[in-house]
Amino acid sequence: MSFSLIIPTLNEAENIDPLLSGIFSLDTLGSQFEVIIVDDGSTDGTPDKVRQWQNTHNVRLIERRAQPDLTASILDGTAVARYEVIAVMDADLSHPPDKLAALIQPILDGTHDITIGSRYIAGGNTVGWPFYRLWLSRAGGWLARIICDVNDATSGFFAFRRELIGNITKNARGYKILLELLMTGQGRLRVKEIPISFRDRLHGNSKLSLTHHLVYLLQLITLAGGTVSFHTASRFAIVGFLGVFVDVLIFQWMTGHGASLASAHISSFIAAASFNYTINSKWSFRLHHAGHLHWQQFIRFLTVGVFALLLRGAILAWLVYTWGISAEWAIFPAILTTAMVNYLGSAFYVFPRTEPP
Ligand code: GDD
Questions:
Q1: Which is the closest atom of ligand 1 to the Cα of 198?
Q2: With a 6 A CB cut-off, is 154 part of the ligand 1 pocket?
Q3: Cβ pair 285, 232 in contact under 8 A
Q4: Which residues on adjacent β-strands are paired with residue 9?
């Protein structure tokens, strides 16, 4: 079997010996493979542990000096890999090395493009994780199913043909490089999931943080085609505030000049929506907009606005009449929900991503 096995490490000194012994003692893999350990500045002596294996086994060590990152490490490892088939696994003994052959063979045979060591299909399981970890992982997997038909898209144990990595942007970061890979083929990739028993690490700590979870959510949104980001959200909020002034000014002016309540209400809404659309398309979502105003896009913006308005009324009525909350307080959650719906409608429906993520 000719393949490169990439193992990212961050403070895994205690795991290196049992991991590499486990891999090199397998007789299913033959001798035609290399192990590339990509270390991200471990301070517990991980690189020294790896060096001890370098004279006797086909082990390479890459010591990164950049900002530590799992995806960036795997990209760097792939860039120097000698073989066309790449496998990735964690260093913390969570993934069973004896499943490597089953992962690699379908890629070598050319029957599949990506294989995944899956915890969430028949025969797979997770041992030793606390409930919250399992729940978070399952939730992440279910969300991923919105964009790709895979049971364990957050697995860290997978194999693929090296050329696929060329479709991933060099700036990709975070924990979920597999998700990026799966999305490169836009549903045309042949994917096979192989059941594995994942067990929680015995030594060292997980490096998965809240930031990684948030980055994952943003990554999902981006891959799904949305343009959600702090940049677009903050500008959208500013435009929303300005739009309220436009709305109120026109409403006051019209009612002050004898217009009926209905015509003042509708006119001020359309004027504010036009104002918001123009500034959002030229400023907030400028990067995701062709540069000139589109009628179709404007109609979509109005549609989202009307829907949000109806929703606001429904939430208000529900909070006031069903829950007995006073209207002065109920208006706040109603506005908040409407603002979010408006923003997500803009990010996914009015100004979706036009360029590949
Ligand atoms: N080079 C490098 N740089 N390696 C890293 C970094 C980093 O910034 N962060 C973590 N690693 C390495 C760890 O040393 C370990 O070998 C592997 O990546 C997994 O990291 P953990 O932090 O131990 O992940 P986990 O066990 O909690 O997470 C498991 O579940 C995740 C969610 O499903 C793994 O299966 C992950 O692969 C999976 O994404």
A1: 35
A2: yes
A3: yes
A4: 39
SS3 93: coil
- 261-269 long-range Cβ contacts below 8 angstroms, 24+ apart: 269/305, 269/309
ipTM of predicted assembly, 2 dp: 0.95
Strands (E), 100-148: 114-118, 125-127
Q: Hey, which bits of 27-134 come out as E strands?
A: 33-39, 59-63, 85-88, 114-118, 125-127
Tens-place pLDDT, residues 37-50: 999 999 999 999 99
Which pair of tokens denotes residue 185?
């083929």
Q: Check if the beta carbon of residue 198 is closer than 8 Å to that of residue 95.
A: yes
The SS3 call for residue 124 is coil
For residue 201, which amino acid is it?
Answer: R
Question: 35-39, 90-94, 116-120, 222-226: which range is least confident on average?
Answer: 222-226
Q: Is 191 helix (H, G, I), strand (E, B) or coil?
A: strand
Backbone angles phi, psi at 159, to 5 degrees: -140, 155
Q: Which residue, 187, 192, 283, 194, is CA-closest to 235? A: 283
Decide: residue 165, CB within 10 A, 0-12 exposed, 13-18 middle, 19+ buried: buried
CB of 152 sitting under 6 A from ligand 1: no
User: What's the residue count for the chain?
Assistant: 357
> What whole-number distance in Å separates Cα of residue 30 and Cα of residue 342?
57
Q: Cα of 173 to ligand 1 centre, how many Å? A: 13
**Ligand 1 neighbourhood includes 42 CB (under 6 angstroms):** no
Residues 59/82, Cβ–Cβ less than 8 Å: no
Question: pLDDT tens, 160-216?
Answer: 999 998 878 777 778 788 988 988 776 688 999 999 999 998 888 888 888 888 888
